[in-house]
Amino acid sequence: MTGPIPGRRKSCAAVAAAVLACSTALTGSPLAAAGGGPAPTAPAPELGWKPCAQDRRYDCATATVPLDHARPGGRTLRLAVVRRKATGPGRRAGTLFFNPGGPGGPGTVQMPQLYESFPRAVRERFDIVSWDPRGTGNSTAVNCSENTEKAGAPSASRPAGFPVGARERENWIASYRELGRACERSDPQLLRHISTADTARDLDLLRRSVGEPRLTYLGISYGTILGATYANLYPDTIRAMVLDSNVDPAAWTNGGSQRARLTTFLRMGSDRSAAATLERFLSLCGAATVERCAFSAGSPQATRDKFDRLTRRLRERPVASWTYAATVADVVSSLYVVHPGWTELAGRLQELWQGRAPTAPATPATTPPVPVPYLGEEQGAGVLCGDSPNPRDPGAYHVLEEAAAARSGDAGRYWTWATEPCSTWPARHADRYAGPWNRPTAHPVLLVGTTYDPSTPYEGAKAMSRALADARLLTHHGYGHTTLANPSSCVSDHVGRYVLDGVLPPPGTSCEPDTAPFAARAPRGGVATGGGGTAPAR
After folding, report:
1. How far is CA 409 from the centre of its chain?
2. How far apart (Å, rounded) are the C-alpha atoms in residues 171 and 20?
3. Rounded CA separation 266/458 (Å)
C-alpha cells in the first residue's frame, strides 16, 4: 500500500493505495452469484514477445482478455506485459509472476525498477514476468482526466496530504465527488470489471499463456491480497507463492459486509503501525549523531519532542508549500524505504525546523523499458472501490480522523482521509471476492512480515497466516514497507530456497535487515553467515 490517493500524480513510483468504496448498487455477474468460483474458460492469450523499445534486456507483449470473465465472448481488454528472461544459461526453471502492489502499480514500470532486488538465484533460474493490471498503466486504463478537466473539478484547491479545517474538508470532498462523476461518465462498464478477482483470473490466463502448469508468484503489499485471492480461486495450481507485507483479508473485505463503520486502513491498523514506525524513526534518530541523522536532538525523547513542536508550529506557520498536512504525508511515505529514505527525511525535517523549505524528494532517475504511462489517482481508486468497503457518509471522516488521531497521532489523520473518496465513488465491482480464504493449496504459501511497517502492519501478516489453509510466516525484525525495498539477505536467502526448491524456513524463523537505520555500516545478515537463524518470531 502506497498511501493516500492525492499523491498519485507525483511520480510513477508513487502509486495510490487509497481504497474506495462504491455507491451505486449494481446487479452482480454470474461469477458473483456463484460465490466467486472459476470463470468460464477463455482461451489463453497469445503473447507476441518483442524486445522492449526503451530497454532491449526486457521483452514486451500485449495480452487480450475478456472484460467480463463470465462472458468471455464479449468486450475485451488489453494487458501490457513485460518479461526479463532467466539469466543462467541452460538453467531456466520456469516463470515467476510479480505484482508490485498499489493497487494500480504498473508492473511494466515497477518490476524493472525492483529487478535487482529479486534474489539472484531466482533471477538466474526464472523468467520474471509482470503486467499492468486491468484498469491501470499501459493496459486498458481508467482515465477520467479529460472529463475532470471539462467539468472544472476543484482539484487545484485540494490540500496536500489531507484536509485541515472545515473549508479544506469541503473542498476535498467536493473534488473527489466530481472525480467520481467524471469516471462514471468516462467508462462505467470498465469501472465494474477491474476487481481483484478479475485480475486474479487474468493472472491465470497469463500463466497458461507462458505454458506453466502451476503458478510461481511474488506479490508485495496489495499484491498479497491479489495472491490470496488467486490461491483461493485456483488452489490446485499453486507451485510457490511469496506474499510480502501482507494485508489482513478480513480487514480488507470488512468481514464480507458492505456496511463499513471504519475505513479500510483503520481496520488494517495502518495508522497504528505508521505511528509505531515513526516513533522508532525518531528514537533511532535521537540516539544517533547529527552527522548520521540531521534531525537528532541528542536523545530519543528530545527528538520526539522536537518533532511534536515542529508539527504544532507548521499548523500555524507553514514553510512555503510545506503545510502541516503536507509534511505529515511526506513523513509517512518517506518511512517506506529506510535507505536512503530515512536519512533524507531527517534532512528535510531539519530544514523545516530551521524555517527553510526543503527540496521535494527526487524520483529515482531510471528509464523503464516501456513509456511511463498515465497514472492518475482514479486508477487505484477504481481497482479498489468495490473490494474494500468504507463509510458512505463524507461527514463521518472528520469524526473518524479525531478518533484515529487520539490513538495514533498525526498518522491517524493521514490514513483516515486516504479512503474518503470511497464515500462518493460511483461503481461497484460485478465480481468481488470476499472469501473463503482457507481453501487447501497444492503447496504451502510463504509469508513475509516486517515488524515496523508504516503501511501494512506485522499483525496483517499474522492474520494472513491464520486465514490461509497452509502458510509459513517469516518475520523480518526490521523497518519499512516490503523487503524488496528494504533488503535483508536472510529474507532473500529463504525466499530463494523456497521459490527454487520448495524449502520453507523452520517455524518461528526471523531475520534482521542488512543495515540498521542511521548506521555507518553493518554486517550482512544472510542465512549462511548466521544472520538469519531460527529465533522464534516475537
Report:
1. 22
2. 18
3. 14
pTM of whole model > 0.85?
yes
Give the chain's radius of gyration (CA, Å): 22
Contact of 53 with 372, CB cutoff 8 Å: no
| Number of residues that this document lists for the chain | 538
66 with 77: CB under 8 angstroms?
yes
Whole-angstrom distance, CA of residue 151 vs CA of residue 423: 20
The Cβ of residue 203 has, within 10 Å, a number of other Cβ atoms equal to 25
CA distance 419 to 391: 9
CB 360 within 8 A of CB 196: no
Residue 478 has which C-alpha cell?
526490521
Region class of 36: left (phi > 0), else alpha (psi between -120 and 50), else beta: left
Helices (H), 195-296: 196-209, 222-233, 249-253, 264-268, 270-287
Q: Which amino acid is at 415?
A: W
Conformation bin of residue 388: beta by default, left when phi > 0, alpha when psi is -120 to 50: beta
Mind listing the pLDDT tens digit of every residue in the chain (538 residues)? 755 444 333 333 333 333 222 222 222 333 433 344 565 678 999 999 999 999 999 999 999 999 999 999 999 999 999 999 999 988 899 999 999 999 989 999 999 999 999 999 999 999 999 999 999 999 999 999 875 555 444 456 689 999 999 999 999 999 999 999 999 999 999 999 999 999 999 999 999 999 999 999 999 999 999 999 999 999 999 999 999 999 999 999 999 998 999 999 999 999 999 999 999 999 999 999 999 999 999 999 999 999 999 999 999 999 999 999 999 999 999 999 999 999 999 999 999 999 999 987 777 667 889 988 999 989 998 888 778 999 999 999 999 999 999 999 999 999 999 999 989 999 889 999 999 999 999 999 999 999 999 999 999 999 999 999 999 999 999 999 999 999 999 999 999 999 999 999 999 999 999 999 998 754 444 333 233 332 333 2
Q: Whole-angstrom Cα distance, residue 525 to residue 492?
A: 10
Angstrom distances, CA of residue 270 to CA of 224, 277, 412: 15, 10, 8
DSSP state of 300: H
Q: Quick check: helix, strand or coil at residue 225?
A: helix
